[in-house]
Amino acid sequence: MSEIVLSLSGITKTYNPGKPAAVEVLRGVNLELPRGQVVALVAPSGSGKSTLLHIAGLLDEAESGQVVIAGQDAGRLSDRARTEIRRAEVGFIYQFHHLLPEFTALENVMLPQLANGASGGAAKARALELLGRVGLSARAGHRPAQLSGGEAQRVAFCRALANGPKLLLADEPTGNLDPATSDQVFGVLMEIVRETGLSALIATHNFELAARMDRVVKLENGVVTEG
């Protein structure tokens, strides 16, 4: 049986609960993500996909339900332990790269490693390796403002992968790029994911990109359905 890297069971989430403006976003989401599988999460705007990804990555808490990452039940862990799992096991990529503008590409990829206890030398070597794999060795010393949109997003990919996570969560990772750049950058992302054997849950509006993944799930009316 394949290792289940991410398991979501009965996940619910309501904003402004108990008030007239209450919005039930997630109504019992169930989802399993085996090791090495890349899953497209297709959902319309405002459907709760970002909320679901944040809950899956332990950035937010569900009202009810269970989140298990790499065999660890997050609901049974302290806040500190949840943070440690997030740092070690989960990588995030967003639509906008969110790189720190005052740091170079190299430093942006080093930072999560340093926060996770890596030495400066080890963090630099790993960052240079990753930047080389996405074709950005020559841009390592450039700050985000000096990079193109596609280059900055590739740096964001490297940052997300820097700590060697088992799970990658991506929220419209190419949604801010033009179609040609989006296709190129997504190709780089998929190549790295395949090489590393990562499990990935990637939210996208782009049905062509979704078709290139192993499996497609839809988030509609607060629940996840296949296909």
UniProtKB/TrEMBL annotation:
Q: Where are the transmembrane segments?
A: none
Name the species this protein comes from.
Answer: Falsigemmobacter intermedius
Please report the name of this protein according to its UniProt entry.
ABC transporter ATP-binding protein
Q: Name one Pfam family in it.
A: ABC_tran
Which keywords belong to this entry? ATP-binding, Cell inner membrane, Cell membrane, Membrane, Nucleotide-binding, Transport
One GO MF term on file is: ATP hydrolysis activity
GO biological process terms, alphabetically, are:
lipoprotein localization to outer membrane; protein localization to outer membrane
The record's listing under PROSITE patterns reads: ABC_TRANSPORTER_1, ABC_TRANSPORTER_2
Which family is this protein grouped under? Answer: Belongs to the ABC transporter superfamily. Macrolide exporter (TC 3.A.1.122) family.
A single GO CC term, please?
Answer: plasma membrane
